[in-house]
Amino acid sequence: MLEQRYRWKNKHLRMHVSVLEGKTSPTILLKNALYLNQTFRQWMRANIWIYDDRIVYVGDNLPSYIEDCEIIDCTNEIIVPGYIEPHAHPFQLYNPLTLAAYASQFGTTTLINDNMALILHLKKREAFSLLRDLRSIPSTMYWWSRFDSQTELLNEEEIFSHSNVKAWLEHDAVLQGGELTGWPKLLDGDDMMLHWIQEAKRMRKQIEGHFPGASEKTLAKMMLLGADSDHEAMTGEEVYSRLVQGYMVSLRYSSIRPDLPQILDDMKRLGIEAYDRLMFNTDGSSSTFYEQGITDQMIRIAIEKGVPIIDAYNMATVNIARYYNIEHLHGAIATGRIANLNFLSSIENPTPVSVLAKGKWVKRNGVKVDGMYGEMSWDEYGLKPMELDWQLSLDDLQFSMPFGIKMENSVITKPYSISIDASADQLPKELDECYFMLVDRYGKWRINTLLKGFATNLSALASSYSNTGDIILIGKNRFDMVNAFNRMKELGGGIVMMEDSQVVCEVPLNLSGIMSDVPIEKLIEQEKILLKELRERGYKFSDPIYSLAFFSATHLPYIRITQQGMYDVMNKSVFFPSIMR
């Protein structure tokens, strides 16, 4: 346990001191570097000594003993701390390893990750083994502990039991509780959730809120109950109201909420010029959104919008580290910190040309260093291809419900009255309605309705990727829907589009049907093809991956399709229960 609790053992610390004493050589020496010093809020010159994964000295001196040390003249280099992503959802088709490897190429070397997929799909022992093994990669991986499933599970009390949540909270790699998607239950008197918040506070860990559109009074109430931060501000006014109530405000730029440019304009209009209580996040965007960058893209936008340059970098580094009480390890270039360093071509260009992560080169002179992130034996953690031992039949595809689900945008859905005959094997192509089915991944239950606004000419789509890992079927042709399911089954999980009994496109997800094991660069290409084919068939929104993920997500209005059945979010009740097969 001590190996996990302390980053460096006593023998390592003694070795670090021996470098300063001239008894041991640094492994890397960065001479005469221009670097960002956040204490003085200045660009300063210094020599930076690194031993393995730690900065052991920053200052004017040079080491007296050098042997097998990589020495780099940094006279023309500009160095900033590695960026921190405080709100990663590392299961949006990609997986934690591929996300970390990809993000490192843009200078994001520390990620604070959602544990939702782990707590839903893995046993605690398997999940904690994965957390342990991810410590060995060049990036640094921290985690959150969820307090609710943000849907209506059939076994919620078992998964989010007190012992389970407490074990997660106590884990050394977990920095916060949340995000609090179930805060309405908390306000309604959920004392178990309040107890978990209290436990997190006792452990000196933060609580992240999820308060879209919250009023000033609600924000104040949630602050009293223990919330520390929120990432749901969509306007400058909402940033202001959160700052006034004492929140740390996480500014978002994501695939479904690319709000940052407008928020920064609003903040300028409102005269908000204090940035110490602000940080950046990308809220688990789809892989295609990351093609142009991750945290570096947000710093660039901030600089272009007139945010002082040092503040723009601080919102991606030291502000986050201070908030999460990890400043002794991250967010600054100073003695004792982990050697996460980004080398820039200019102060105004935050995308690094070279990156050190834990003292290892993961990018050098604009080129990715291959083999640094290796591979993982995913099946050791219970992440294997899906094995479905049941069949889907046309009899399962019976659609007789009086109302269906209408899409307002990528993630907001409302109920609507069904006025068409849904008994045929094929729905008319001129309508924007599709058959819509959620079926248990173990084949025990199903719920069928119609979905309006998703597509006009989609024959069939099957997806094992969803909020809960259950299977989504959408389409106009019941035969192709069965075919798409069967093909998805052959893949061991994935997203499959069928037309005239032929595969149009597919995204294999061989890690429990929820994640791909291919590099994000390849996943981006697969996702682009999927989006292109969906658009050609009438999908008009921004992000189909989030549409699939959030059909069951009860932290969003107004109607959801869940394991328990059709769910009315506002009234917290099940309209129609799921049907046992």
UniProtKB/TrEMBL annotation:
* EC number annotated for this UniProt entry: 3.5.4.2
Catalytic reaction(s) noted? adenine + H2O + H(+) = hypoxanthine + NH4(+)
- Which GO MF terms are attached to this record? adenine deaminase activity
UniProt cross-references to InterPro entries, sorted A to Z: Adenine_deam_C, Amidohydro-rel, Metal-dep_hydrolase_composite, Metal_Hydrolase
**Which Pfam families has this protein been placed in?**
Adenine_deam_C, Amidohydro_1
Q: Where is the Adenine deaminase C-terminal domain?
A: 411-572
Q: Does the keyword Hydrolase apply?
A: yes
| Ranges of residues in domain Amidohydrolase-related | 78-362
Q: Which UniProt keywords apply?
A: Hydrolase
Keyword Hydrolase recorded: yes
The record's similarity note reads: Belongs to the metallo-dependent hydrolases superfamily. Adenine deaminase family.
What protein name does the entry list?
Answer: adenine deaminase
Species of provenance: Neobacillus cucumis
